[in-house]
Amino acid sequence: LTARPEEAGGLNVSVDGDQIIVVEAVGGPDDPECCPGQLRTTTYAWDGTRLVIESQKTEPASQNAKTPGVSP
Fold this sequence. Notes:
mainly beta
């Protein structure tokens, strides 16, 4: 699933084995609202009862970012 909103940002959701991986554009502390300059990757896993966050990392977006709509 890839959502391509008209405004800056974007969302990429993929499944890898038993994990759901969400990559989304997020603004850094000095980024204007229009132009998020970071990507947050959140990995979810099923714990037997519900989805839980297994890991989360945020890093600067690059010109080669694969998330749609990200303005580095």
